[in-house]
From TrEMBL:
GO biological process: protein refolding
Lineage: Bacteria, Pseudomonadati, Pseudomonadota, Alphaproteobacteria, Acetobacterales
Record InterPro entries: Heat_shock_Hsp33, Heat_shock_Hsp33_C, Heat_shock_Hsp33_N
Keyword set, alphabetical order: Chaperone, Cytoplasm, Disulfide bond, Redox-active center, Zinc
Protein name (record): HSP33 family (HslO)
Organism, as annotated: Commensalibacter communis
Length: 307
């Protein structure tokens, strides 16, 4: 863990950007996003040193949120919060509109140790709530949707959310494995484009054509393997054309993802100033007050005299 000894406001964390982390693609009645985090997945996951199952879950969640945030049309952030009642009590992943990712998990080490090494999301959470939040910065409206956890994997839980909360047909697969090069995380998201209420009702033939296209796309997407998704020798465009070459796919401009945490020394200092003197004395350990950012695992060290 990196210790903070200077007076810099921002923590000394890795500066890593994957230029083509998210590749959007389109069809006449559907759209999708291919997420491949590359070296960023290992950098984010290794920072926490979580048990294998938690890291795997975290990698899948990072891919999911990065893909969803890429669709934001404004400055803000997209976040996932899963509150469980099992070994994992909380999973939080956050991504800004420009692809800055961060995450952390809260869990019971003893309970995790009793589960299989590659425990499923359902085994880790058992039950609880799955919530997605869109936060428009600059004090604008915040939207949150929440549903009960349903499904065995995080992919199934996310699909259930969109079907029940957003009434949106979607197909989601998330992949995360520890390879010889470290952690790799990827995702593939398909969404059926919702009908525009301003357009005249479609005829039966148009509806049938859209249904057929959606069925074809999901069948093709099912053929994708984890090995292909995590193989960094295959570029994004090549992978998409290999998968959807028989369709009228159009590939958009790729978007970057990067290591991002919005913690700062000044923000924590202002928080500490709201505590009473007795609380500050209690937090004082050998002349130092240490506050750790759960997202980047960075220790900010303060002297009581600063507060």
């Amino acid at each position: 863990m990196t210790k903070h000894t200077s007076i810099s406001d921002r923590p000394d964390v890795p500066e890593l950007t994957i230029p083509e982390g998210i590749t959007p693609f389109f069809f006449p009645s559907a759209r999708g996003r291919l997420i491949r985090l590359g070296a960023l997945a290992n950098t984010l996951l290794e920072r926490h040193q979580y048990p294998y199952a938690i890291s795997k879950l975290g990698g899948e969640a990072l891919a999911l949120v990065a893909g969803l945030a890429a669709a934001l049309k404004f400055e803000g952030s997209f976040s996932l919060q899963v509150k469980g009642e099992g070994a994992v009590s909380l999973l939080v992943v956050d991504c800004t509109h420009n692809g800055e990712l961060r995450f952390y998990a809260r869990f019971d080490e003893e309970k995790v140790a009793q589960l299989p090494k590659e425990a499923s999301a359902l085994e880790l959470f058992e039950k609880g709530l799955f919530a997605l939040t869109v936060d428009q910065h600059n004090d604008k409206d915040t939207y949150q949707g929440m549903v009960k956890i349903t499904g065995n994997s995080l992919s199934e839980m996310a699909s259930h959310y969109f079907e029940s909360s957003e009434q949106l047909s979607s197909w989601i697969r998330l992949y995360c494995e520890h390879t010889s090069d470290g952690w790799e995380a990827s995702g593939l998201i398909l969404e059926k484009i919702a009908n525009d209420p301003s357009i005249i009702v479609k005829n039966e033939e148009e509806i049938a054509n859209e249904a057929e296209e959606w069925n074809t796309l999901t069948i093709l997407a099912e053929t994708m393997t984890s090995k292909e998704m995590l193989d960094q020798t295959i570029d994004n465009n090549q992978l998409l054309y290999r998968l959807f070459n028989s369709t009228s796919i159009s590939i958009g401009t790729a978007k970057p993802v990067s290591y991002g945490c919005r913690c700062s020394r000044s923000r924590l200092e202002n928080l500490l100033k709201t505590f009473s003197k007795d609380d500050i004395d209690t937090m004082n350990k050998d002349g130092n007050i240490t506050m750790t950012c759960e997202f980047c695992r960075y220790d900010f060290i303060f002297k009581p005299t600063e507060i």
